[in-house]
Design brief:
Layout: H1 3-9, E1 27-32, H2 36-47, E2 52-58, H3 61-71, E3 75-78, H4 87-96
Parallel strand pairs: 1-2, 1-3
Length: about 110
């Protein structure tokens, strides 16, 4: 990613907002994947950005569904193929339970 692109999205290489400037709270991320190496890799990428924070992780869909219901993260990164429930099923159950994400456009 180019430094200018990183600055535009507030990622690695983003300029410091200045002394005394309040930083927005970190986005709370939940990860679910049944492959430990993939989970570890995604977690490493997410935690490298100060604007992101991993708040939970699971290796199967049922655990993810239970924990997401309790933790209410801002963003979910779900594997499509997991034991128990796949990522699409987890997202659908959360939507049906009324736990869908906020409108990114603020509407």
């Amino acid at each position: 990613m180019s430094p200018s692109r990183a600055r535009a999205i507030g990622g690695v290489g983003a300029s410091d907002p200045g002394v005394g400037a309040a930083r927005p709270p970190a986005l709370r991320i939940y990860l679910a994947d049944d492959h430990p190496i993939v989970l570890a890799g995604v977690k490493a990428l997410v935690t490298a950005d100060a604007g992101l924070k991993v708040v939970g992780e699971a290796g199967d869909g049922r655990t993810a569904l239970r924990q997401v219901t309790e933790l209410k993260p801002d963003i979910l990164i779900l594997d499509i193929s997991m034991p128990g429930l796949n990522g699409v099923q987890v997202a659908e159950r959360l939507r049906l339970a009324g736990l869908q994400g906020a409108d990114p456009h603020g509407a």
